[in-house]
Amino acid sequence: MRFRRWPRPTAYRETPRKRAAFLRKQHLEREALPLFADAIAARQHGVDEEMARRHVWWDEREHDQRDARARRWREARARLFALPDLLRAKVRGLWRTCPYPADPASFADFLHQIAVGRLDPDRPPWVFHQRSQARITANPATFNEAFRQIGRKLVGGGPDTSPTDELLFCGNLGSGILFLTSRARLIGQNESFYTSSHHRLRDFDVARSDHWVEIDVRGECSESDLSLIEQLAQAANTRPVIVRRIDPLAGQGGQLRAS
Questions:
Q1: Whether residues 160 and 252 fall in one domain
Q2: What pLDDT does 193 receive?
Q3: Residue 18, Cβ neighbours under 10 Å: how many?
Q4: In the prediction, which pLDDT does 207 show?
Q5: Which end of the chain is more exposed for a tag (fewer CB within 10 A), N or C?
């Protein structure tokens, strides 16, 4: 075990500063009650007597502190040996490497943190642990199961148009994290968001048949994952869905997949 030895007892050291501080203390006591200064002075003892008393008190204090420290060590060791064999061996190994001070109070707190579950002996906080594996949805049944919405903003809009929602999703099908951007479009190739008022995309008619959904996929995405995204997105939409892979470095779209 890792225990720090108590320093050897030392004798009380007299210094001129300690003697002057004691005389100053007696002087302040007399000045605090000037009418009773003579009575207070008669009850005060000399500085030599005070130094002799401190020598005796110092030795007693050192002895009491050593006894208290040894008692705390015995109590902490009793708690340690009450643990199961496997856990006790693991705890002893952790105590040798932990950054806590090697004193009984720290050791008792160390055992308490383990007992209440705040310190995991298998994953101590002072040891670096590799990051856990990313959450993967290997065989999703629905689009909502595979991807979680993490953002939303309005795009388009102008003097004669209303903006439409652009949704951002993220998920991991096994090859790495993917980011999907979904937005509704007008089917008319010559139309845009800046059209006349009777062709605007409004919140209440985004499910109409004259709209289609465009989904941009960013991240490491295989052909099979792209097909799966297409199937899940189409199953969740009554409108046609077009999925395309986006190269974030080039800033250009890749292959289009329409349903």
A1: yes
A2: 42
A3: 15
A4: 45
A5: N
